[in-house]
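Researcher: Sequence recovery benchmark, item below. Answer with residues only.
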């Protein structure tokens, strides 16, 4: 059985990535793939319990980072690795690029700390394709304020999201083959055409 592929969607809050998650999953299902859709933080019962804490309880920035990776370890062990091993494709709303963007870019934690946790938890494992939905800060801010309730991250200042965006773009520059930047100001229809091309390229 060939191993499935792992696709992640990333972007600042308000970039609109969640809209495209089901499109990616449906596109893959139309190719006859078994698809598992999941998210971070979360994706397992324990991970979802950690997500509640992460999104709503005040905590130290390092605690936040460690809990993100605790949830990720459980996610990999319980869901992602077994699904890929049986040949399913896994589509995740966020993964480790978000830790570099939010905890390093946003909160200012050293990238080496994140890299150490990444090496521990992932042991070389990485997504096959990452779709980065990029929008200018004012567009993301308008979309965030239209949303009903804000969690701990969504209540952050505009400067926080500018740093998060820049950290995402820096990662995309460092890994251009894996991280594909999409201009999320484009219409949903235009973006879906672009996403389809990128998925075709995965084989
Ligand atoms: P998000 O995926 O945007 O969910 P929703 O669309 O329901 O708001 O929310 C998850 C939040 O968690 C988001 O603000 C980014 C944050 N996050 C991190 O800070 N670090 C991480 O490693 C991950 C996976 C998420």
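Model:
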């Amino acid at each position: 059985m060939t191993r499935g592929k792992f696709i992640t969607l990333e972007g600042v809050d308000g970039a609109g990535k969640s809209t495209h998650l089901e499109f990616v999953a449906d596109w893959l299902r139309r190719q006859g793939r078994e698809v598992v859709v999941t998210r971070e933080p979360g994706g397992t019962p324990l991970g979802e319990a950690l997500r509640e804490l992460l999104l709503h309880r005040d905590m130290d920035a390092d605690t936040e980072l460690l809990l993100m990776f605790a949830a990720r370890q459980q996610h990999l062990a319980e869901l992602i690795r077994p699904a890929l091993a049986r040949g399913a494709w896994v589509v995740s709303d966020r993964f480790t690029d978000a830790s570099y963007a939010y905890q390093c870019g946003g909160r200012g934690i050293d990238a080496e700390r994140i890299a150490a946790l990444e090496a521990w938890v992932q042991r070389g494992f990485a997504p096959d394709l990452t779709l980065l939905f990029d929008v200018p800060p004012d567009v993301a801010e308008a979309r965030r304020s239209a949303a009903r309730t804000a969690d701990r991250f969504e209540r952050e200042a505009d400067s926080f999201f500018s740093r998060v965006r820049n950290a995402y773009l820096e990662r995309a520059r460092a890994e251009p083959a894996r991280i594909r930047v999409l201009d999320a100001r484009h219409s949903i229809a235009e973006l879906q055409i672009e996403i389809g091309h990128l998925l075709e390229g995965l084989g």
